[in-house]
Amino acid sequence: MDLKETSKGIDFLIDNQHVLSYQTAKEPVPQGIKEAFSKSGFIHPIISPSGQVLSRIQPTDHYHHYGIWGPWTRATIGGREVDFWNLGDEKGRVDFARVLSKKVVGGAAELNVRQNHLDLKAPENEKLAIEEDLRIKVKPADKSRYMVDYTTTIETKIPGGILLDDYRYGGGIGYRATELWGDANSSILTSEGKTRKDADGTNAKWVIVKGKTADSSGESGILFLSHNTNKAHPEPLRVWPLGQYKGEGNVFIEFCPIRHESWEIQPNERYTLKYRMIVFDGELTAEEAEEYWRAFVK
Which Pfam families match (predicted)? Predict the structure, then answer.
């Protein structure tokens, strides 16, 4: 394991092979696109063991989508709606603030960062609404796979707290997959046996997202695991149904703990959500996914 600083962020390497990056620099937007869509503080790329890039940022249908990330959407602060997800509305944004720590020890590489959730339309001026400590820990797994622990802890100092309103997007962990995947060449399977056809709005302990790649096996993917201590576990999912958007590159999933019920964030209290990803080439079965989940919560 190794960590390497670049002009854009911090790369994680296994045996000198780049497997994922956390971006600390704001990503420029394409010419003609509103500057508000530029942001930092996300994982991209995430790369399979054989070198297949599995994530995507700034897709033309949703310029605010950034690889693997998890901003809250409809939040109520002092009676006002603040949206940290839909960057184009310019109500809120999540930025990388600083590195808290980074280390390589015990066969794992770990990065801890502070991310600031900013209320851009606060009455006085731009205001810090939520401080987030994000821990990203990467280490090899069995069968030439690797695992990524993604642990997010949020806290607000705003008197009266914040209400994270129930909505189909927001928080948890979101994933916009490679532009190579579409309805015909990718699949989704949840712990409850749901597929892309019927998974949206259902609850799950885990979800496998995979699709066609140039790996010798023909496919690669990511298993997402939700910890049993998480809010609303087994967690509600947002999954773009088949046909949601036409053409390739229309695969999006998210563990969304506030999908069906609002979450009240009290001032000076810390709230943690834990996720794990298993990144793989070839096949990963439902039985294996269940074993990985049991190991995660154990």
Answer: DUF6807 (PF14100)
pTM: 0.98
Cα radius of gyration (the chain)? 18
* Per-position DSSP letters for 20-72, written without gaps between them: EEEE-SPPPPPTTS-GGG----EEEEEB-TTS-B-B-BS-TT-TT-BSEE---
3-state secondary structure of 76: strand
Q: What is the pLDDT of residues 218-269, one digit of tens each?
A: 999 999 999 999 999 999 999 999 998 887 799 999 999 999 999 999 999 9
Cβ atoms of 198 and 164 within 8 Å: the answer is no
- Whether the Cβ atoms of residue 256 and residue 170 lie closer than 8 Å to each other: yes
Residue 59: per-residue pLDDT: 96
Q: Which domains, from first to last, does the chain contain? A: 2-297 (2.70.98)
Tally: H helices and E strands in the chain: 1, 21
Cβ-based neighbours of 295, under 8 Å, separated by 6 or more: none
| Residue pLDDT, tens place only, 155-197 | 999 999 999 999 999 999 999 999 999 999 999 999 999 999 9
**286 within 8 A of 223, measured Cβ to Cβ:** no
